Amino acid sequence: MSEQQMIEADLLVTGAEIITMNGAREVIRDGALATRGDSIVMVGKSAQAARTVRAKKTVDGTGFVISPGFVDGHIHITADPLTRGFVRRMPEDSWGNNLAKWVIPLFKCQTAEDERLAAQLSAATMIRYGTTTFLEAGTVIQMEAVMEALGETGIRGRVGQWVEGRDWGSTGNESAKIDEAIGLLRSEVEAWPDDGDCLLAAWPVLVGHSTNPDEVWLAARHIADERGLKLSAHMSPRQSDPDWFLQSYNRRPLEHLADIGAMGPNVLLTHLAAIDESELQVLAESGAGCIHCPDAAFLGGMGLARQGLHPEMLDRGVTVMLGTDGMASDILSSARRMAAGYRDARGDQDLLPSTSLLELATVNGAKAMGWQDRIGAIAPGFKADFVMHDTRRVEWGPVFDSVGQLALCAPPAGVHHVWINGRQVLDAGRNLLLDEEKLLADAVQAGKALVERTGLPVRTPWPVA
């Protein structure tokens, strides 16, 4: 290659083992990765890079495994980060009462400053564990404060404001509530538009379950269609959703959504732990995707091991991505929980192998969000979102199979460096954009004040002296 044909790069990483997640799923030993601006411009062997790349900065990647940044498809970035240790329910409460008496009051009592702190704490935690892209769960109240706070973190994400269009008899004016919900959906995507290339934008994200009438579902779908966005919502984590839809419409949730025209390839539904075969067929035929949250499902006792159909979704060609749901921070740990739960339930140790787990956390997440040509893989032309995992830790030992070791046993603390959109945001475990010590101190105080405002009791399982 002549001098004129040299690849100009801002950054060159050499000597690493690269799990590319490209179409051929190549793993490159003694690999090199070059970036310019926000994109990857070269991936190959280090010897090749020495001949073809001229970089402003070179990093020695010896002893590191590089993966694409992970994608978290469902996370409550506010309230949960400030109150994760707060015991939110009484044993005698039903799931619905738990939401009404304990969970929702915590969300509703947040101030703009609470949500700002929580969003930054959530982003910092995701980055620390290698997550570079997320889809928020649709429970943000103070959007302006949240989007401003997230902009300081460098993370890539899509966020939705809390939208409920069902009146539940509180005012007796359902049409006004519907208009308000639709207006909110439109205003948020106009205020934070998605040009396909920005780090942060708003998508229509419904609370889901039974909280929105058909008009709101259809409006959200129309907004997603006309703007090239995705629509996301909670649905059927437990039998209560199917029971409600059967009683109200004489159809199960996904059957009803399909009948009214609310299902399609740009729809992502979270949980789907309590669907049946007919709904699985609807899901597969519609092209809609599923966001599976293993921590919420298995720790929440959703009966997933008994009735879950996520392996069947994958077999039918449904795009399944993973979410932590605010109950976890590390997407790879969620993937491992999914594999462990389903392997044990099915008595099949070969179910959901390590290759599938890495796909769920990377390329599947990218495809579900419509960005399979931008993120989720390390290849020229893709966004420079990547993670360097330090294998010089006792938990790694000698590296024989980097794919299996990263998917099944690598420690979350092994995330050493993180780049998002060509910008380094984590260096040797240190956040380069946020003062984490101050952020945590502020968040601790805000969380205590938030719980105090709810008037809910602080309880511990054992007596504290």
From TrEMBL:
<dbReference type="InterPro" id="IPR011059">
    <property type="entry name" value="Metal-dep_hydrolase_composite"/>
</dbReference>
<feature type="domain" description="Amidohydrolase-related">
    <location>
        <begin position="65"/>
        <end position="425"/>
    </location>
</feature>
<dbReference type="InterPro" id="IPR032466">
    <property type="entry name" value="Metal_Hydrolase"/>
</dbReference>
<comment type="similarity">
    <text>Belongs to the metallo-dependent hydrolases superfamily. ATZ/TRZ family.</text>
</comment>
<protein>
    <submittedName>
        <fullName>Amidohydrolase family protein</fullName>
    </submittedName>
</protein>
<keyword id="KW-0378">Hydrolase</keyword>
<dbReference type="InterPro" id="IPR050287">
    <property type="entry name" value="MTA/SAH_deaminase"/>
</dbReference>
<dbReference type="Pfam" id="PF01979">
    <property type="entry name" value="Amidohydro_1"/>
</dbReference>
<dbReference type="InterPro" id="IPR006680">
    <property type="entry name" value="Amidohydro-rel"/>
</dbReference>
